[in-house]
Specification:
The chain is α/β, with parallel strands linked by helices and about 425 residues long. The chain has 3 domains: about 35 residues, no CATH class; about 170 residues, Rossmann fold (3-Layer(aba) Sandwich), CATH 3.40.50.1970; about 190 residues, Dehydroquinate synthase-like, alpha domain (Up-down Bundle), CATH 1.20.1090.10. The chain is about 45% helix and about 15% strand. Strands 4, 5, 6, 7 and 8 form a 5-stranded parallel sheet that branches. It has a two-stranded antiparallel ribbon with strand order 1-2. A two-stranded parallel ribbon has the order 3-11. Helix 4 crosses helix 5. The longest helix has 18 residues.
């Protein structure tokens, strides 16, 4: 028996006959449209104590002098930094400890200056997505010898930074959060002008790192509140990839396996004041799969949930992972009501289709994340006072560039976005 997928683009007919799916008997009733998958991911090193191999990772890429880039708190975390610096061995030239969550261009320029002063040929960002973005922009500045003033003028005139025209220095991130920003060809940056702060960035396939070192022991040094929010962000990369307008069988496969790993691991991630080691190992592997293939030359598979995440971050000043936690169940209900097929998510989570939303909510609750926008912002104003912010966030969501990859069945206009945000309030 063949069951036609209910997705609006009707790209796949799935065979449900066990006999037809017997080993060595390919099903005659599976149809997949032609696709292209042009992607050159970073070299991936996963496992406990892999930070001890950093010097050899650099050597394999003909690099020998590294500037570690991190924030002040991360730099003071010796349980994390001692193994990283020891793993770099003779390749460790210096550590730059001035990144911030604000992702300032000034910090990227200062990191580039320091790398230039010490003759570093590689940047090793240690921490979360903000640090990786700052290091990536620093690499862009180093590649072309761009000064901060030049970059500021470029952002003012064009709204963004051009990719480097020369070879950039090496990039070998050591992530410590589960947001999955490490396998990315896009870096955000912000620039403060006299009339305010401008959010900007740079994107190009050549900005994918040379290698990423995923050591679960490094993740274990991150506070639970930070890791929880990032986990929700990373999970949603897999969720969105299953119904993105530009998904492919490759992203389908990695996203579904990521959902299985993360669905198993995240509910049992916390073990008192620490982490369950087995769950953390599996969660890190799941985030690698969730991020794999998200940033392709022809566009990202991120869409609805990240558009909401950006808007809630900018309008309500929510940490993006927390924003995902409060809005995702409501957004998924709206997507499914519009005709988006929940089957890939159900198969990934190993639950019935009508239990997908509850499964996501269960994961959020196990991570001890907020359940409403009001709760996440500690707002006490009346609903009418909040409605202006909700309307502003709805408009920002509908105008987000990720709307281009929203599934065809769902019209993410400001009205639809406001209904979802009101339900999440």
């Amino acid at each position: 028996m063949c069951v036609q997928s209910t997705s609006s683009d009707e790209r796949v007919t799935v065979c449900r006959d066990p006999e037809a799916q017997a080993v060595g008997s390919p099903s005659p009733c599976v149809h997949t449209e032609p696709f292209a998958f042009d992607y050159s991911p970073a070299e991936i090193h996963y496992g406990r104590d892999t930070v001890g191999e950093l010097e050899s990772v650099l050597a394999a890429h003909d690099r020998s002098r590294a500037l570690v880039v991190c924030g002040r708190n991360t730099g003071a975390n010796r349980a994390l930094m001692d193994p990283v610096e020891a793993g770099l061995g003779a390749a460790h030239a210096d550590t730059f400890r001035r990144t911030t969550p604000g992702k300032r261009l000034r910090a990227a320029a200062a990191a580039a200056d320091r790398a230039r002063d010490i003759g570093a040929d590689t940047l090793v960002p240690v921490g979360g997505g903000a640090t990786l973005d700052v290091a990536t922009v620093a690499a862009v500045l180093l590649a072309d010898g761009r000064e901060e003033a030049t970059a500021r003028s470029e952002v003012r005139e064009t709204g963004g930074l051009a990719p480097p025209s020369n070879d950039r220095p090496g990039l070998v991130p050591v992530p410590t959060t589960l947001a999955g920003a490490d396998l990315s060809s896009i870096a955000g940056i912000s620039v403060r002008f006299e009339d305010g702060v401008v959010a900007s960035g740079v994107g190009d396939p050549q900005l994918l790192p040379d290698a990423v070192v995923y050591d679960p022991a490094a993740f274990a040094t991150t506070p639970q509140s930070v890791l929880a929010g990032s986990a929700c962000n990373g999970l949603n990369k897999a969720v969105e990839s299953t119904y993105a307008a530009n998904r492919t069988p490759v992203t389908d496969a990695t996203a579904r396996r990521a959902l299985t790993y993360l669905g198993d691991a995240l509910p049992s991630l916390f073990d008192g004041d620490g982490y369950d080691a087995t769950a953390l190992d599996r969660a890190v592997a799941g985030v690698i799969l969730a991020q794999y293939g998200v940033s392709q030359p022809d566009g990202s598979t991120l869409n609805v949930l990240h558009a909401f995440g950006h808007a809630l971050r900018d309008v309500f000043d929510l940490q993006q992972g927390v924003a995902h936690a409060v809005v995702t169940p409501h957004a998924l209900r709206a997507l499914f009501d519009a005709g988006v097929d929940p089957t890939p998510l159900a198969e990934g989570f190993c639950v019935p289709s009508d239990a997908v939303v509850d499964r996501v909510a269960t994961i959020r609750d196990a991570l001890e994340l907020p359940t409403t926008i009001r709760g996440a912002t500690d707002r006490t104003e009346s609903a009418p006072a909040a409605s202006d912010d909700i309307a502003a966030a709805a408009r920002a969501t509908a105008q987000d560039s990720l709307v281009d990859t929203v599934p065809p069945a769902f019209d993410l206009d400001a009205t639809a976005a406001e209904e979802i945000l009101t339900a999440a309030w």
